[in-house]
Amino acid sequence: MYRFASLYAMGKLLNRTPVYVHDESTMHQIDKELAYAFPNFHSKIYFLRKNVTDIHTLLSQNKGRALMLTGEPVFENTRYFNHMRPQILKIFEFGKELVSKVAAIKEKIISEDKSHKICIHTRVGDFTGMGESKTGEINKALVRIIKILTRLLRNKTYSLVLFGTDKGFLKTIKTEEPISKVHYVTDLNLSRGEELNFAQQICDSFLDSADLSSFAAWMGYLMPE
User: Fold this and answer.
1) What is the dihedral of CA 60, 65, 71, 74, to 10 degrees?
2) How many helices (H) and strands (E) does the chain have?
3) Which residues contact 8 (CB under 8 A, 6 or more apart)?
4) Contact 209/141 with Cβ under 8 angstroms?
5) Contact at 8 Å (CB) between 214 and 192?
6) Mutual orientation of helices 214-221 and 192-202 as an angle, nearest 10°?
7) Please, what is the average pLDDT of the chain?
8) DSSP 70
9) Is the pLDDT of residue 71 over 90?
10) Structural domains present in the chain
11) Quick one: pLDDT at residue 28?
12) Is 43 helix (H, G, I), strand (E, B) or coil?
């Protein structure tokens, strides 16, 4: 998502279209998933012809002017495309079937829960020593978040919506008063796209506890203002 969004923004500036080499295996593997989750994104995916394999030779034979992009491998930074945020959000607009499914799940589990939903994304096992989720940091942040919300939202109850696959870790997060309820997203067996949309539909506040997680970054980026 980062790579396409960044290249799309650069392409708009330079009047160019992002394309993938034909043997981009990852894109082929997730083709159906993308069509279901992000149909607008899926419609903009173009592959080079099968016989176009030696990109470097092809470029060396081209006598036109070229621009060498020297950013990170996947341009993993919103600075490349945040100036056109509305267009990027349109590209990554969720499919109607997915939205309907997630809305039904949300209604089933929180139909009577009118509290302010504090969502926390966690990632453990990756980024060790460089930005993985840590219980102590989450608990401290949660205390501060609740203090701020209590000052801004009077007479409001709060519930936690915890994202992450390690339920043992999730249970180490403090859920004392004034937290009234805890929802574990891992229990819902959602796909990646469904999980992103679930966050978009349910979260009132969002805490990214693993700052190197691109999934968490997009979870926050795709949320309403």
Assistant:
1) -60
2) 11, 4
3) 18, 44, 81, 88, 91
4) yes
5) no
6) 40
7) 89
8) -
9) no
10) 2-91 (no CATH), 96-221 (3.40.50.11350)
11) 84
12) helix
